[in-house]
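Reopening: structure tokens for the adenosine-5'-diphosphate complex, inputs below.
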Amino acid sequence: MNLHNHIYRENPWLGLMIGNSRLHWALFSGETLDSAWDTDYLPESVIQQFAQAQTPEKFTDRVISQLNTIRRDTALSGPYPISLASVVPSQTAIWQTLPNVRIITLAQIPLFGVYPTLGIDRALALWGAGKTWGFPILVIDSGTALTFTGADDNQCLVGGAILPGLGLQFATLGQKTGQLPLLEAQLINSLPPRFALNTPEAIQSGVIYTLLAGIKDFIEAWLFLFPESKIAITGGDRILLKNSLQIQFPEIAARLIVEQNLIFWGMEKIVIEIE
Ligand SMILES: Nc1ncnc2c1ncn2[C@@H]1O[C@H](COP(=O)(O)OP(=O)(O)O)[C@@H](O)[C@H]1O
Ligand SMILES: CC(C)(COP(=O)(O)O)[C@@H](O)C(=O)NCCC(=O)O
Ligand SMILES: [K+]
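Re-run output (same inputs, fresh job):
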């Protein structure tokens, strides 16, 4: 164990996952995940103020005070290293200039058979889920993009798929057409009529029923290969999708484990294991 590792093992540290919509934060004490929360991207000027701190303690104070501003119910203090994973290169470029930031790369994840451009969020969530519930495992991440990522009994990547997530499908229709309204995914609290008679419900119907049918189809194809596999869903639309599946395809929904923090479970295991 090197000194850096020792710091992670014994002390509080922050995990930062940079997604395409927002920042995902976690506070760990040693190997335990204490709490997790989401924030918007921070202005570059704010991040640069962190970098101007003269000492690690000052740096951490500034990060912490910024996070406290965002989330006042988290009492953070003391020096915190940050373990960062990102699927947004322009954001990585800003954050990696800071001291105390260590970037997690694909090479650090002990999955077999990965391809070089696999998203680090997908690899971390897969590793976190597999190490927790066992392999084979399928992870569905319903973020900006919706991804399926599966590994077999040998902790080897089988593969997956990427499609526009729920919010992105609504955004694309709202932004790339002349007269469709921009709908918000979070406003869907019940399934629309399948054959709708107004524009918002027609958009909702098309997007949600197609997405649910697609998820069902991918899950069935996975279970055909690995009948005993656990299947987990994470990401910002996880609850909406699980609830909708519950109504539409209850037997599929019954197989889905909902867990918000799969990426941080993976991060915790990686950060602690790295020598
Ligand atoms: N407060 C929120 N802000 C942004 N997106 C949200 C929020 N609550 C739920 N969502 C949903 O979460 C999805 C984004 O998921 P998330 O996991 O945060 O994305 P990413 O990891 O790609 O940044 C969007 O499709 C959106 O519908
Ligand atoms: C597929 C993703 C865009 C998902 O990102 P997210 O929606 O979580 O922000 C990201 O994992 C990524 O950029 N992946 C690289 C390509 C791949 O995994 O094959
Ligand atoms: K995702």
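Residues 72-78 have pLDDT under 50 and may be disordered. The first strand starts at residue 12 and ends at 18. Marking as resolved unless the reporter disagrees.
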